[in-house]
Amino acid sequence: MINIKRSLGAKTIIYPTPVLIVGTYDKSGKPNVMTAAWAGICCSVPPCIGVSLRKATYTYGNIIDRNAFTVNVPSEDQVKNADYFGIYSGRDVDKLSHARFTSIKSELVDAPYVKECPVVLECRLLSAVEIGLHTQFIGEIMDVKAEENVLDEDGLPMIDKVKPIIFAPERRDYYGIGEFLGKAFAIGRKED
Amino acid sequence: MINIKRSLGAKTIIYPTPVLIVGTYDKSGKPNVMTAAWAGICCSVPPCIGVSLRKATYTYGNIIDRNAFTVNVPSEDQVKNADYFGIYSGRDVDKLSHARFTSIKSELVDAPYVKECPVVLECRLLSAVEIGLHTQFIGEIMDVKAEENVLDEDGLPMIDKVKPIIFAPERRDYYGIGEFLGKAFAIGRKED
Predict the structure, then answer these.
(1) How many contacts (CB atoms, under 8 Å) link A and B?
(2) In whole angstroms, what is the distance from residue A50 CA to residue A71 CA?
(3) Which of B139, B146, B182, B187 is 20 to 30 A from B127, comparing alpha carbons?
């Protein structure tokens, strides 16, 4: 077997990678947001999401202090703000005000979510896993909230209405969502 | 502030969610693949990916035994096979043969990768994090390998050539990649 694949080295490459906005309160109660891509659902029961952050981020200390965070899914028309939230630190600038985004205090966890994002998750910190440069915060999803205009007749979000942003590591490209390809747990069923 | 968002309950919803094929060897040395969506990069240094699996899966035992797995990124024209790999168990069927996919033995870790997938990651098991129904396997990425025809002039994969599959939880929809939206760490920079 000849392997025609080229070796790229030990890199953090996977597709798709999400673009998510993490919402927290700092010690003074000021809401802050930062963009994270090293994240994904990590358990169904309890429903959990893992978000990995460097200790150097302002959000890191906020999560440790408050034991809570939100995960906000930006829409593709918010891509410039999502990028902005990933470049600057909440230590230096009030990013939400600068982007003219609005924070709403969660009634479930001690963190703010972003009004303008179509889908938001309210998470309580379950554990912090030290891996290396990044610490993975595992948050139990206490509730998902969504804008009415992205929901189908069953009250479930439609990804083509949410229009999330997809990040391509290394080349650092943002992409939008494309065409419907099929139904999961259905199109791969074998008749024989 | 009136919150017009609708509460959907505690659900595993986030966008985008990946569709990844996990490759392992079983005790007898038979290569197996399964599709996983609860996954994401979780550390830059060392480069790591987290993949969450239920203990009931065949792959779970294989990873525990071999301390290794691969993560293979399928292309959208492989969506039916990717779905198939997530429906059936390697206990009951030789999924790779059935799908006419080819396994290649990694020279770096004790696991097989999928020749037909445009991008593959070879991972050694770093740790297993018990969360609940799912166990998160954190794998150190030892190498990324890619097909020549998805690489740019700098040798980096282009996501619009890889054409990964995006999964929308709850509605269980598969989608493809869409339009280029902009450059990360660039389009959000403030001039003022």
Answers:
(1) 388
(2) 10
(3) B146
Does residue A7 sit at the B interface (CB-CB below 8 Å)? yes
Check: CB of residue A36 under 8 Å from CB of residue A53. yes
CA distance B12 to A186: 20
Output the CA angle A23-B14-A172, nearest 5 degrees: 75
The complex's ipTM works out to 0.96
pLDDT, tens digit (0-9, with 9 covering 90-100), for B148-167: 999 999 999 999 999 999 99
B62-105 residue pLDDT tens = 999 999 999 999 999 999 999 999 999 999 999 999 999 999 99
Interface membership of B168 toward A (CB under 8 Å): yes
**B187 in A contact zone (CB under 8 Å):** yes
Interface test with chain B among A21, A115, A144, A191, by most B beta carbons within 10 Å: A144
Q: What is the DSSP letter of B78?
A: G
d(CA B128, CA B131): 9
Residue A190: the pLDDT is 84
CB of B161 closer than 8 Å to CB of B149: yes
CB contact under 8 A, B43 and A144: no
